[in-house]
Amino acid sequence: MMQIAVLFTDIVGSTRFFTSHGDLAGREMLQQHEQLVSAAVTHHGGTLVKIVGDSAMAYFLSAEEALMSAIEIQQELRRYNQKKDDRDPIHIRIAIHFGNGIIEQDDIFGSVVNIAAKLTPLVDPDQIFISGHVYKLVSDLSAADFEPVDLSGKKALPEGLTAYRVIWKETFRPESHSHPVDRPAIDNPVQMWDVELIKLYQRTIAQGKNQPCYYCGDRRHLTANCPSKHLPQKTNALEELGYLSLGTINKLFWSLFASEKSNRPPNSDGMAINGPTTLANYGFFELKRVFQLRFFASIWNVKNESWSSIRKLSSDEDKGGPAWVALDCLRVSNLSKAESFLQKSLTQHPNDYRAHCVMGFLNVEKNDFGRSEHHWQRALECARTKPRKTLIYLLLFRLYHLNGYHSAAAEAIRELLFLEPHCLEAIYENILFKFRQGKTSEALRRLIKLIEQDRQFYINALIDPELAPFSEMIHPELTRLFDEVKDEALRLSAKAEKKLSNLAGILGAEKVAKAKSLLAKIEELSKSDGYLAYHDIIYYSESVIAICQRCAENQRRELLEALYGVNRRLEQYCRAIGNYRYPSLANKIYQELKSIKTKIKELRDMTGLEVSEKFKEAAVSAEELSRKLDKIEIRLNKLRAIQDMVLFFRRFLKKSLLFESVLIFFTMIFFPIVIYYLNLVLPKYNMSPVRDIWSYQKEIIGFGGILALVLAFVKTFSTSPKR
Question: How many Å apart are CA 672 and CA 666, to the nearest integer?
């Protein structure tokens, strides 16, 4: 379901014309009507759905273009009548309504069609009626006036329907209000999603007289004459289009639409892309490259086991043999010679999958689809690798799809996705298939997921003619994706520039040069305003950010290691102060350690700022703190020495007093008592009397006191802690 403008034409008095002029003249009159209507509809980007007898039905995505087309039809018809005999004029009535409609491959449906059809019989000859819905969209058009039409009393019209008669100025030319065919340039490229330029080209491709070309889908040429057969093996046009803005892409496709050469590539000799029309044309053919002869030629001898790699490669090995010559003959549309070489090849190598594949292509160009299916089925039996089978399933799927064998096409795509679930081309074709089946919600969800997986499919979704009927549903999602990528690119590029500015001082000359070169690429890409350009901006921005963050992390790690060392020493000194016996002596050092601890916390916080000046400042401060701790360590050592000296003398004094006390006790008390009792027990030894013992006591106290001091010193020294 989408918003469309439906245009009906009806020849007034056609039955009377046949009666009075005969069948031959009547038929000529109908053909003239068809030519006038078809030319004007195509000129304004509409789609001529059908012509039944003396009536034509077309639809447009723009109400204004529908009105421009109607005015052109009436003007051309008036000029035609002026050249004819007065007895042979053609008079037609035209009605236009705008609303919701359902677009299928060969028809349109919905209330918008019914209302336009019911409004048509009410129109006067040589007049145009538009509904109120159309009037709201075209009322500001300066080239025409609008006069309300009284519909009261008219039967079978929807309630509330209003209509207006269009009164156009005689000097008005539709070309002045739309893009003329002979002017390929656009002065102000449109950069909004409601433009019709790409859609013009998409619909033109679908309006040819032939069956859809197997190789590209264009109805304007036969498969045997497809321009893709003369293109380079890979043009990268879709990728190049992805780097352009929407306005530029629209301009390119309008140039292609307006060009008389739009049905063949402007550069078919294999040269590089060298013009805007060529890029747009190549982009269209690139959509179905996997089904084309040039793709098959590019992978002729590739033996990779991965489809994701084979689709990006070209075979560098020698190519030869009858099958290869046949492929080259097929490329230049020499079908008889190609068939001769293929029969020879299959006679020599009946199980050569390549020969069967080329034979399938040959029969496609001969419109013998049954033989094509047979040879591709045989190729499937002969293929030995998954990529080869994947390609053949793709070829069969397209064969079934173009011939309306929907169940067979669905089966082929299922088999393919079971064999190679990650084949992006198969996933994309399956999405298109689901859109055609009416499973639009599921198809849209899968399409967005595919674009997120492989960004290049964004351009496929934008320009693929097969998706044109669903553009009203797809384009808002493409807009959302574009805006999301653009916002993210702008955010990250600003972040990258800021990080480089903040951290340039610590990166080093080589890394600064690399980061600046990436920023230069970002600046250049930002000028194009393209979807892929914004993806690249995100990548380059993340690279710059990563370079800066790695350097910042290295600086942060080094700084934190230095601060860790300083903090470890600080804690050690704080513990020493806490265990010091004389706090009053260490109070000043303790206060200094507290200030250093506060400074360490500040420096840790500075490492999270990621500014080169802050990193440098923090590094200098860390070195200063380390030097301060060196000085504090010297002062602490002095305090320890004082403490050790005091403790030594205290211990020495205690031990001296102890030893002296023992000496005095022994000399003054224990020694006299022992002498007294020895004299009592052993009188015969005639020991000195107790009254003469003082002389001995003085000698013992003198020598014993000195010995006690020496012993106390030795004992104190031996038990003191070693530093």
Answer: 9
Is the pLDDT reported for residue 108 higher than 80?
Answer: yes
User: By percentage, how much of the chain surpasses pLDDT 90?
Assistant: 24
**CB neighbour list of residue 283: distance below 8 Å, 6 or more residues apart:** 237, 238, 240, 241, 459, 463
Residue 528 CB-half CA count within 13 A:
19
Residue 389 near residue 380 (C-beta atoms within 8 A): yes
β pairing state of 47-52 and 128-131: unpaired
* Alpha-carbon gap, residue 288 to 208, rounded angstroms: 18
Distance CA 55, CA 252 (A): 35
CA gap 21, 32 in Å, rounded:
15
Report the alpha-carbon distance of residue 4 to residue 100 in Å, rounded: 6
Which residues make Cβ contacts (< 8 Å) with residue 264, sequence separation at least 6?
221, 227
Residues 403-435 as b or e (16 or more Cβ within 10 Å = b): bebeebbbebbebbbeebeebbbbbbbbbbbbb
Task: Give the pLDDT band (50/70/90) at residue 319.
Answer: low
Return d(Cα 591, Cα 414) in angstroms, integer.
Answer: 79
Q: Which residues contact 612 (CB under 8 A, 6 or more apart)?
A: 502, 503, 504, 505, 506, 507
- The DSSP symbol for 667 reads I
The rounded distance, in Å, linking the Cα atoms of 547 and 594 is 37
> In this structure, are residues 346 and 355 in contact, taking their beta carbons and an 8 Å threshold?
yes
Count other Cβ atoms within 10 Å, centred on residue 455. Answer: 18
Q: What is the Cβ-side half-sphere exposure of residue 553, based on CA atoms within 13 angstroms?
A: 6
Cα–Cα distance, 130 to 116 (Å, whole number): 9
CB 43: neighbour CB atoms within 10 A?
A: 19
Tell me what pLDDT residue 189 has: 33
Structure tokens, 14? 């056609």
User: Whats the size of the chain, residue-wise?
Assistant: 723
For the ranges 295-299, 309-313, 620-624, the lowest mean pLDDT is seen at 309-313
What is the four-CA torsion angle of 520, 525, 528, 531, rounded to 10 degrees?
Answer: -160
Two tokens, residue 304: 């990779």
Distance CA 567, CA 555 (A): 18
The Cα 316–Cα 133 span in angstroms is 61
Q: What is the DSSP string of 223-292?
A: GGG-GGGGS-S---HHHHHHTS-HHHHHHHHHHHHHSTTTTS-S--SSPPP-SHHHHHHHHHHHTTGGGS
- Of 447, 458, 460, 421, give the one whose Cα is nearest residue 306: 421
| 465: DSSP letter | G
Report residue 56: phi and psi, to 5°: -130, 150
Cα gap 276→264, rounded to integer Å:
14
Look at residue 692 in the predicted model and tell me its pLDDT.
66
Neighbours of 701 (CB within 10 A): 17
Interval 228-244 mean pLDDT: 86
CA torsion angle 502 503 506 507 (round to 10): -140
